Amino acid sequence: MNDIKTILVIGASGKTGSAVYKRLLKQLPEEKLKAASRSSSTLFNWNDSSTWKSALEGVSHVYLTYYPDLAIEASAAHITAFCNLASSKNVKHITLLSGRGEPAAQTCEEILINSGLSWNIVRASWFNQNFSDGFFKGFIDAGVIALPVQDVKEAFIDIEDIADVVVETLLNSNRRNQLFEVTGPELLSFDDIADQFSEILGRDISFSTVSKADFNNMMLAEGVPADVLSLLNFLFTEVLDGRNEYVTGDVNDVLGRPAKAFKQYIAQNKARF
Ligand SMILES: NC(=O)c1ccc[n+]([C@@H]2O[C@H](COP(=O)([O-])OP(=O)(O)OC[C@H]3O[C@@H](n4cnc5c(N)ncnc54)[C@H](OP(=O)(O)O)[C@@H]3O)[C@@H](O)[C@H]2O)c1
Known about the structure:
Elements: E1 7-10, H1 15-27, E2 33-37, E3 42-43, H2 50-55, E4 61-64, H3 75-88, E5 93-99, H4 103-113, E6 118-124, H5 130-133, H6 137-142, E7 144-147, E8 153-154, H7 159-171, E9 178-182, E10 188-189, H8 190-201, E11 206-209, H9 212-221, H10 226-239, H11 250-255, H12 262-268
Parallel strand pairs: 1-2, 1-4, 2-3, 4-5, 5-6, 6-9, 7-11
Antiparallel strand pairs: 8-10
The structure holds NADP nicotinamide-adenine-dinucleotide phosphate.
């Protein structure tokens, strides 16, 4: 912890970024933290590299979340340029949030690992909070989770668990240069998810497989921009093909406690659904 001058949290208004920032604020004085995004106190925009330089001023450690997803084509060039700039500004360490089963994300991991910087990768399964703070929320409100997938399973993880692991990588130098693949404790299909919501919320939530065309029309009607829609298509029709149907013990290994169960997440956030 002694080598920390200032930690830059990129995506500090987002799901994991805000949870990480909140935790760091309990352990470090505010002047050692920089909250960055397009709308945070430190201006940072992935699409405007002129904002990166001032954001990195005086920074020793970075929590890097990329937006919209490391899976997009631009990510490798952005991560390469960012790591080069960080090295030239004497940044010591970057913890990168990554995703599972996405070749472009794994390329970005390699870029950081080979950057010469001290690094950690926190490679996460899909977030529970997609259902309360993200794209899936509308499905729960409507009572039907309608997706172009069949009975594939995912090991949904809580962002509170991800944030605890990320903070450990930033503050504990014994964790350096390791990749943690973090998942929730169980594999769940969208049918299982719908059943758990129905049981805990006390109203009917179902899962329905829709065609890719119907899914695209629904998303377009909801105003989802074309680039986000192509990312969603990639995630649902390629990444969700069973390649990620396994759980890991990394949350337990790092934190010494099990990852939060999906049922517990629903119960804790009941008022929001
Ligand atoms: N969601 C999942 O299930 C999941 C699973 C594994 C990995 N991930 C990874 O997590 C990362 C974040 O994804 P998320 O969907 O959960 O989003 P999020 O972190 O909840 O929100 C996005 C954050 O990025 C900021 N942002 C948006 N556009 C930006 C830009 N052009 N430049 C700089 N900052 C920008 C937003 O703040 P402003 O609007 O203020 O800029 C916000 O702080 C992605 O790299 C994704 O691959 C997500």
